[in-house]
Amino acid sequence: MMNWLGGILGAVLVGTVLWDVFETIVLPRRVTRRIRVTRLFYRSTWWPSRAIALRIRKNKRRELFLSIYGPLSLLGLLVVWAATVVLGFAIIHWGLGSKIGPYVSSSGFLTDLYYSGTTFFTLGLGDVAPAGAAARAFTVLEASIGFGMLALVIGYLPVLYQAFSRREVNISMLDARAGTPPTASELLRRHQEAQSMSRLDDWLRDWEMWSADLMESHLSYPALCFFRSQHDNQSWLAALSTVLDVCSLVMVGIDGLPKWQAQLTFKMARHALVDISQIFNTSPLQHDGARLTEEDLAHLRTQLSAQGIVLSNESGDAQTLQDLRALYEPYTAVLSRYLLMNLPGWLPQAKASDNWQTSAWEVSTRGHERPFQKCMLKPGTARRPVALQKDD
Questions:
Q1: Cys-Cys with 112: which of 32, 90, 126, 391 at CB 3.0–4.6 Å?
Q2: β-bridge partners, 101
Q3: CA-to-CA separations, 288 to 60, 206, 283, 284, 329, in angstroms, rounded
């Protein structure tokens, strides 16, 4: 009786893992069921990793530690899947009476476990063989499952990293357009300085597509949420927050800019943000407005006005901006806390340098004027590079 119950338990383990593999790799939609092998695995590994990261004081070391978690968790999940299937079939063979032979003097659960492992990974050593029709049938089934899971994993990883690369391209391009870390005011300032405010609609349209791709890829493959960007001062969450900030300002009203594309991008970006937050079952935080206080808003208006950007300041506009922010900032705040990803402010940091302006060579020459800064031209100016001037 106990053997049959063990066999049923083994079948349940195998079936549970196979369904979890199907939901994680094959099914292209978000799974809302809370009891899953993948969900339990990430919850049991992320919280300890997050606790360790919080004890690391230096930001670069902390980001390096967290950047390893995403790829390493994938390998760990594959090991858990494989080990559970091997254990499940070992229990099934044990439930059948350990009918393994004839090349071993004695059989037992350890022999069943060894045989299940060699079958799953299709080693075909031949030192242990099934005895009986049922054992042979389960042997063929396990070998087929092992081969099929290997094929799924081979196809899964390239798709995952392609989605990651698509996400990072726009984030990298945001550095030169909105500063590092990116801010809405800096993006508007640079567009105005380059006399490209009319092209802001095109930029917002591109980020509408990026937000849609972010939602589709991260709901289908939630592990991507843990993948960090190339630089420790960038993240997909910071980029999404900046896009929503820009849309909010345009929707409140900027002289000379239409609102239609900003509304479309705002809806898509917020949709992606809310759906991704539901992956981790994180409730939005209470909106306290601390990210942009009344004093900061006044400073923001002053800075934009100095650049010739007129932000609407009619009665009710401040409340409209507050209402728009309340639609997404509670979600960005809770994801920032959960994933340990810093959110950018609305105003640029003082004396901040873009990522393209920094390198290891710059650190070694600290205190000297950066040669490339002399070569950077403001719109409408012309000057020869410093290197050519020295050769004259």
A1: 90
A2: 129
A3: 29, 31, 15, 12, 9
pLDDT tens sequence across 324-356: 999 999 999 999 999 999 999 999 887 777 877
Whole-number Cα distances in Å, 35 to 40, 48, 149, 341: 7, 20, 21, 27
2-155: CATH architecture: Orthogonal Bundle (1.10)
Structural domain boundaries of the chain? Answer: 2-155, 180-355, 364-391
